[in-house]
Structures are given as C-alpha cells and as structure tokens.
Backbone:
C-alpha cells in the first residue's frame, strides 16, 4: 500500500486499526479523547480492568500460574515456603506475648491460595495460636482466583455474600475466611492482632514514572525572566499512548508494540506532587536524565499495614498497644529507587509491557525503602526490619532442616530430586535462583529495637 493511503487512515479513528485485544482498542479510544495517560492508569487497566484485565478476566480455564501459565511463584515451587512463613507468624506471635484472642490473618494478592493453605497447615500445629485466630481475610481483585482460593481453603463449605465481603469457612481452622477487593474494606477493629502477608503483590501495583529534564529555555527577547535566573530541572511524567500507525505497520517481526511511552510536554498533577513526597526523589531532581518510579498505591498499602499494626499515633486517646506484623516478600532493590523496571511476562518469557494489553502480566520492582518510609511515617507504633535477601531469610527460618525432614519420608529418586531442586531454587543467589533478587521486609510493633530482632532478620526463635 502506498504511503498516501496510510496517512489518510492514520488520523481517522482508532477503528481503522486492528487491535490485539478489546482492551487495547478501549485504551486507545480513551487516549484519543483524553490524551496520553499515566503509566499507572495503563497498568491498572491492563491488570485489573473488569473488561479484559490480566487478573480479572477468565483465561479460557487456565490460570496465570505454573508451567502452563505465565509465571511461577515461590509458594507454587515448594510447600516449605508457606510453612516457613507460618512458622514466622508463630514466632512473632510468641515474641509479642502469645495473645489468646483477636488474631487476624490477612493475605493481599493470594494467587491460587497455596501460600495461605500452607500457612494455615503450619499454624494448625501450634494449638494455642490456632485457637487465637478469629478470621482470615483474603484481599483479591480477581473473581476467578477468589474462586480457586475458596476451593482450596474451604472445600465445599458454602460461600455467601455479606456486608464485609464474600465469606466461607476455613477447613484447617474452622474460622471465617472473608474476601475483599481492597484492604480498605478489611475492618480496622482496634485491639486486634493482624498478621499480614504480601507475597508478589506489591510488584503488581501501578507505578508512575518520571524523568528530570531541563525546562525549555525562556525566549530572552520576550521573557521577563532575568537572563541570569537559574532554571532548575523539573520532573516530567512518562505517559502512554498508541504507537503511531506507520511504525507498527510492518510485516517484519520487528513490529513495534502497540503502545509507547513518551515524556509529557509540561508538568502533570502527578509530576508536581509525587516526587515532592520524599527527600530521596528531591535529591535526584537537579540531575537531568534521572528516572524514578513511584507507586502511590503501594505506599497507601504500606501506610494501611502500619496503622493496623502500630495504631493511629496522631490521636492519643486510649490507643491499644501495637500488635501484629506484616511480612512483605517481593523483588526490587534494597535501597535505591527503581527505574525502567516495568516488565511484561507471557508464557514464561519477557515480552513488551506495551503489547497485547490484558494478556501480558505486568509488574515493576518494589521500592522497599519507600514502603519503609511510608510505614514509619504513618505510625510511630511500628518499626521496620530488612529488607533482607530471601535466601538469607529462608535459611534463617530453617529451610534446609525442613527439606531434610521432608526428604526422610520420600522413597523415590524423582521425589527426592524435586524437593532438593525446589528448596535450592528458593534460596540460591545465582542462575535461576530466587534467593538474591527477592527480598523480605517486616513491619512489627515498635519497641523491640536492638533488643529484639524478628526471626529471619537476625533474631532467634524464642520458643
Ligand atoms: N501471592 C501469590 C500471587 C501473586 S500474583 C503467589 O505468590 O503465588 C498477584 C496476586 O495479586 C494475584 O492474586 C492477583 O489477582 C492479585 N492482585 C493484583 N493486583 C491487585 C489489586 N490491585 N488488588 C487486589 N489484588 C490484586
């Protein structure tokens, strides 16, 4: 086709294009009317739109996890992972004086439910903790994963819709299991001890991306700005828009993805506000070219965890003492601010995050330091430990000993090789190992300080 034909088409409408998915068309139409959108808005739609989001629409009977899915996670690799997180909760509950009631277990982003199932099995062996657990909350955006979790945790027990959320009964502990779509809907009852687990959840929360740039030089012939005035670099947001048609229309395998990032031409509300929220970002602004990623949703989850555990210390009427803990396990740098970290995964391969929206899993590095800052800023009733490498944490939790114990009960060589391979993959630091890239961070009640480090973070189990 001649180039005139294409240019006639190009600006006509988004209808003229063949979009990879219905969600791609919908995003393109929206951008056509509103203009380019923040990366966070794109991510949010791709992952959890009710119309074709990656987690929120059925995938022809298959799910996202495992060999036939798109990716595999630690709890799916070995049952030991969840068991050790269960033991961590037991140890933390003991260190906090073994409360005899009011314990709540909360998991955000529970996937297939495997992790919570393994945690509950481990906790069941500690009778006094098991009898203190009042309720299990599952925060899950995906209706199909909620179903899978319900089947695993509650078997045939009925599921009813209540004012708090969908509710059934745990087959391990006999207590209610309640599903909500957001942690905001989990009641914040004072005097409870919430133990919160977030495994590979924060990486799925939408990020905004910014770059520091030299603002355009004022025209000195017309400008009233003094010529000697110092023009400091400013943050600009990276926005998503469809890739112009001529660049995607190619028969080669090199076709560009349907969407692309470009720098906003002027400040956006997000670029004016978010990078001002921490000295870590402010320190980078004077250096043009600096890139930063910020996830306001991640920060509000960390804030929420801290308030549940440490209490709202800004009002000091009758504050119950801090109690509970949160364990955050994910990938990301220990102290630096993530940049260029958005990735797409499909069928275990890295693909462009801007292709086939809704069919590709999107995730970004977790900014652990930002989460720690948010938690500590929200409540003076908490302290933060870590992040430490997952390999270190699991070794300290006794992964080797637990694997040896499991191996004793296995007769066949294949089973032995599987168990050996699995636990090593969770702790190994190189190759396909998850021991170094994945990190673990804990939010616990303040006051322990140097006297008490949680187990897995340099402390001992005090059993
Ligand atoms: N923790 C599990 C699953 C990780 S995948 C595991 O390790 O195997 C991410 C999980 O978070 C999925 O269950 C997904 O449906 C859920 N999720 C993603 N974004 C969410 C959001 N914004 N709110 C609630 N749940 C979300």
Residues:
């Amino acid at each position: 086709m001649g180039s005139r034909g294409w240019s006639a088409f190009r600006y006509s409408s988004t209808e003229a294009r063949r979009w990879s998915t219905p969600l791609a068309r919908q995003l393109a139409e929206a951008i056509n009317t509103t203009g380019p959108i923040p990366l966070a808005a794109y991510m949010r739609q791709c992952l959890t739109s009710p119309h074709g989001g990656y987690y929120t629409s059925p995938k022809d009977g298959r799910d996202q996890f495992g060999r036939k899915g798109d990716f595999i996670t630690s709890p799916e690799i070995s049952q030991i992972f969840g068991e050790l997180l269960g033991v961590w909760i037991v140890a933390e509950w003991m260190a906090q004086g073994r409360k005899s009631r009011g314990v709540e277990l909360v998991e955000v982003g529970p996937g297939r439910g495997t992790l919570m199932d393994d945690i509950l099995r481990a906790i069941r062996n500690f009778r006094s903790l098991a009898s203190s657990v009042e309720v299990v909350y599952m925060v899950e955006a995906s209706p199909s994963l909620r179903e899978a979790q319900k089947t695993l945790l509650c078997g045939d027990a009925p599921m009813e819709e209540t004012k708090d959320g969908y509710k059934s009964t745990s087959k391990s502990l006999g207590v209610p299991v309640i599903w909500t779509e957001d942690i905001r809907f989990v009641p914040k009852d004072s005097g409870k001890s919430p133990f919160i687990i977030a495994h590979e959840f924060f990486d799925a929360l939408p990020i905004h991306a910014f770059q520091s740039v030299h603002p355009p030089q004022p025209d000195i012939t017309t400008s009233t700005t003094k010529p000697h005035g110092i023009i400091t670099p400013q943050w600009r947001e990276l926005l998503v828009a469809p890739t112009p048609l001529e660049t995607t229309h190619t028969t080669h395998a090199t076709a560009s993805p349907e969407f692309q990032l470009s720098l906003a031409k002027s400040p956006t509300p997000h670029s004016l506000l978010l990078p001002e929220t921490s000295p870590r970002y402010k320190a980078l602004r004077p250096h043009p070219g600096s890139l930063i990623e910020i996830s306001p949703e991640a920060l509000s989850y960390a804030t929420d965890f801290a308030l549940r555990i440490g209490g709202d210390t800004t009002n000091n009427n009758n504050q119950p003492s801090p109690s509970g803990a949160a364990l955050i396990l994910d990938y990301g740098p220990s102290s630096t601010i993530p940049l260029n970290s958005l990735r797409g995964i499909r069928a275990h391969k890295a693909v462009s995050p801007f292709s086939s929206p809704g069919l590709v899993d999107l995730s970004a590095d977790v900014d652990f330091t930002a989460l720690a800052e948010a938690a500590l800023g929200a409540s003076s009733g908490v302290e933060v430990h870590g992040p430490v490498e997952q390999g270190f944490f699991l070794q300290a939790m006794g992964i080797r000993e637990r694997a040896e114990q499991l191996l004793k009960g296995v007769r066949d060589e294949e089973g032995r090789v599987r168990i050996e391979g699995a636990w090593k993959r969770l702790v190994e630091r190189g190759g396909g190992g998850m021991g170094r890239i994945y990190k673990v961070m804990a939010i616990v009640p303040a006051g322990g300080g140097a006297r008490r480090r949680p187990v897995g973070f340099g402390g001992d189990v005090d059993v």
